[in-house]
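Aggregate trends can hide what the representation actually does to any particular protein. The sequence in question and its C-alpha cells are set out directly beneath this paragraph.
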Amino acid sequence: MTSSSNSNTTLQDLAQLAGVSISTVSRALNDHPLISTRTKQRIWALAREHDYPFRPYMPAGPIGAEGSIAIVTPHMRGRPLPLSHPFFLELLASIGEAARARDCDFTVSHTAPASYEDLVSAVTTSRASGVIFLGQAMLHDALNRLVDTNARFVVWGAQMLGQRYCSIGSDNLLGGRRATGHLARLGRKRIMFLGGADPEAVQRRRGYMEGLKEAGLEADPKLDVPVDFELESAEAAVSRLLRRNVAFDGIVASSDLIALGAIRALRRAGLAVPRDVSVVGYDDMLLSRLSTPALTTIRQDTYDAGRQLVSRILDPVPDNLPGRLQTDLIVRESCGA
C-alpha cells in the first residue's frame, strides 16, 4: 500500500519499512558495494512505492553493472556534434557492444561542452566511472587542463602535439596521404580536398598536401575546399565549383558522408563517378559499402575503436598513452581501380 504522505517520506521511514538502519538505506540508494543486490532492490522498491525523492541518489546504471560510462559530444562550430551522423551512430553502437561485453552500462549525455568549465562540469557531475568525449572540437587546450583534475576520461579524436590526455583515433595524416596517392597513381592530376576545421580533418588535409607533393602534383588553392561535417555542405560546395568551371578529376573527402555529398553533386551535373571524377572518402561507414558506386575509403575500425575507448575507461593505462587504429585504404568502385 502506498503511503498517504508520500512527499514526506524520509530515510528513517524507509529504514523502518525495510527493517534496516538509516545508514544501510543511504548506502543502498547510493549503490554502495557493501550492500547486497537483494537489499538494494528491496529498498529501491520501497523508495519508489512511497515516492521517496531518490533520483539524486540513483547509481549511474542499473544495479549489478560492473561500471558505467557517459558519452559526451562537445560543441563544434557553435553547435553540438550531430549524433544523427551515420559515423557517430556506428561508433556509439561499437561503444555499446564493448561496454556490454564488460558488463558495463553507458549513457549519452545531454551536455555539449564548449569551454573548460563545461568539461569540468561534465566529468565532475557525472556518476559514471568515466567519460568518453566524441571529438575534440576546439577544446584541445582545455582537455589538456582537464588532466589535472584527475578525472577519468578518454577522447575519440586526433593525436596532437603537446597532448597530455588519452585519445583514440586513426593516423589521419597517413590516411590523407594514402587517399591522395591512390588517386595520383590512377592518373588523376587535379585532386580536390573537401574537409572542415576540426583537428582530424586538418590532419587529413595535411596528408593530402603531402600526397600531392610525393606524386609531383602542384597544390591548387581553388581545390582546397572547406566544408562542414555534413552531406549537404559538400554537395553545395562541389556544385558551386562546377558552376564556376573549376576543373578537377579527383576528390579526397575527409569523411564518407562528405564524399557521398560530392557524388550527388557530380551526378546532378551529369558527371559519372569514376569515369569523370574519382572519389575517396574516410571512415568506411556501412553507407559507403552500400552506395552506388560503392565508395573507396580510408577505414577507421569502429569496432576496435569502441573496444579501445571502453578499455581506457575501465582499464586506464599510465601516462595517458594514445591508441591508434589501423589505417587501411579500402578500394571500391568510386575510383575505378
